[in-house]
């Protein structure tokens, strides 16, 4: 009923009214009230208070069985073993005939490690039984096996073996009995009996690796040190076993781990051929462990490459020069390609792995596993976006496969596509769930929460990220609480060994990798919040105030503050009403009062919150070095130097060569030395204990040099040594930079030169060292990691990489700019580039008024952003603007351009890369891609300076350049018109004219993605069938939606009446609530005629340049609504956050291939092109910019 506060209040009233209730003439408090109060606290998971209440109740009525039972369950839940033992003894004394109290007492002694007493309790109980248990009674057999476990854990293995033999006929779980016998024989060094026992177990399960390990130990075979002769004998033994157990994979696989040389080659050859012939998808995963030995990896590579060559030529794995009688199945070649692709991916030979997997896909394009592997290869190569696309392509081949659906979701999150990831994972949630995300949280789907939390973290959305990590923490708390019910159940059902295993599992629960990752991330966020509270607050605001001016942000915050105050005042009056509504909305989506996780970010004690996550790691994961490094960070900020030093010493014991540890030691010494307020005794102890990890006879520079010498050839250690040198003394900057640049030409670093560490080096060179050689290092990274998007999409451009690393343009009429960028950039003080722009100083025909202008940009201010344009489209509205017939007219100015006459830059739409950011700008970084958030910016130029409110960020490389350049006009217009006027349902129809226009094509595709049918009119033209076919391909395929194309003339002459029209489209009950008009004139009137009652006709263009005619009958009898839409106006009247959400949705549609490209022609414009030639290129495509001219878009590309 969700009235817990009322329940607590009533119990408190009961206690206050009956504290001195009468009981048998004596004054005592009410045990019932205290017991109920305890139950209430227990239901709230407040175990400490519940225990106090039970204790009060027992003081009043110490023999109350129900209170004692609840009390004992709470004690074992809280792991208070001493008190639990006392409570079990008391329960047994009150009811000595109850089996579960005997068992409970035995367990309590066992947990206290009183093994002899625990055994005696069970033995005594068995002797009290008047009726002997029936043979093979499960409960009795489990109790006997549990007693044997107690004896075993006491250390008396001989006695445990004797006891085990005595209970053989009474135990149901024969396999467990046999396993224990084999283990005991081995521990007692009875090798012959142990061998017999393990052979019996292998008969039961010939695929259990543990049994084979036990067999070898019983035979005194050291599998890790076999000589040549022993290996031959070892293989012979396993061949005999393989004959006896032909279906056992373990028998075939096990020898590969412990043989070498020619023996290994012979064994693995047979193993690989058999698996490739059968087509075992998990073959590579199965043998991957063998790659720990480089010799074995080389043998496998040689063999499988030989298979591939032989299969290609002779259709057999091996060819000995004679005619082949028995050929391998065609699938053998496919599985060999599949294996080799994974093999070379493991070696990080990305190009070769991609060639192999692409050949496999070409061979069999319907096999899901191939696309999954391609996605992994691309991910390992550093192209997360393409990896996601490959994984999604595989997912779409089998929409019923939950595994690949989950993998695809993970890749979407790795690529930052949160909305699309939630939609994808939601396909496998309960259909009756109020919300897919809520269902995932209820089902404790921790992998998703962890990945999404880390995705939010990468986007600096700390509130949402912390929310996910706290949800994971709550899941572990819930799992801990869930054991409560098993305390009584397991004693009643006598599943004692399983119960003991559960207790021990729960005790180490938070050492689970999911908790560790969540805690690690949460701690790092809280440390960041502590270090930079004001900066973090600003970053969190970016999600709500992105691209606003300082004044707008101030107003928005003031407005939000007033709204919050008002809401607080109204809260009390609405509380009862909300509770009543909550009762009625049982099946609806639960309300989330803090979707952004603000309460976590706004904590007043971030270090305290970090410590809450750290404490379980300290207790349960003390062997992981990350635990102590995190503890060091927390304690250092608390200035608890002794605890920080203890963390460093413990980390040093685990791995003294850990790079992070080395830097932390230096940080610690410098912090302690600079802290003038440190206690003298603490300083003395620190100095004494510090010698454990750093001798004070060695200076910090020498300490750093020794560390580097100990770890020669390691790139991570090299990076830390260089940064530590700068930390020790900034005057060592040049020496530190030289250290980093060793990676470029020194091949000894090749083995440890991974993509993540190279990115860290590049970032360090660029930001920490501000090195001019950062670009040289980036270009070298391109050679090492050829498909990695990070190194391809450079934030700094040199002449050598121009035009080669950009995405290919595929969509609409685009003017893609490859111009020379700057060789060096800082965030503000950069040499500003020369701009080449297409401008006009008066309105008129483009050929008469346009000219090319070259000018130098002014210095970048702290509140502005420097852009380098990548691609721009030429839209009809751009030409209308130049002609002066478009409502939006950019102002003519002189100041920016340094011209005698005032001019404006043409163009409204485009995509640019951020190449410089002012110090006070939030939400943008060098390397980001941006689109225009306001019309009239002037995009037909190579570079520009923009205010943050004029641009909106998109993920670099998340979509191709042409799609990014055309995101904000045609696609956005189509999206808004379909979304804003009518609540369209699946199966509805939308009718539009100009169906082959840019907006029209976007409407078809978005409508298809949403399950909406489209009716599209186009002008009757010679290539009608060709255009019809193209539009059908955009909206057809295997989709259930219809894409109907009809000429304007046919619509007017053949299907004027609504019945005729509905018959033509094949749906006499069709609902057509929305019409879209970009032509006007008679065409608009005709499509309005076929709208359903109360439908909307949205006009967004007038390409015919004829007026809109609205018959009165349409208003009177059909109640039609006629409205207009203009994207520029929508941008001015809607918040930036809504604009951002629209862009995210459109990008997701493009990434999942639901919103595709336009047909285009490409023209090129070189950076050296002179002004006359440049204008000629523009003039050449102006006439083609009107989509109804011939339906093919133009691209002007600057190379």
From TrEMBL:
Keywords: Mitochondrion, NADP, Oxidoreductase, Repeat, TPR repeat, Transit peptide. InterPro entries: ADH-like_N, ER, GroES-like_sf, NAD(P)-bd_dom_sf, NatA_aux_su, TPR-like_helical_dom_sf, TPR_rpt. It comes from the Eukaryota. Gene3D superfamilies: 1.25.40.1010, 1.25.40.1040, Medium-chain alcohol dehydrogenases, catalytic domain (3.90.180.10), NAD(P)-binding Rossmann-like Domain (3.40.50.720). Residues 569-602 have a biased composition (Basic and acidic residues). TPR repeats lie at residues 31-64. Its main location: mitochondrion. GO terms for molecular function: oxidoreductase activity. It holds the Pfam family NatA_aux_su. The keyword Ribosomal protein does not apply. GO terms for cellular component: mitochondrion; NatA complex. Residues 557-602 are annotated as: Disordered. It is found in: Mitochondrion. Residues 848-1155 form the Enoyl reductase (ER) domain. Belongs to the zinc-containing alcohol dehydrogenase family. Quinone oxidoreductase subfamily. This is 9329_t:CDS:1. It comes from Ambispora leptoticha.
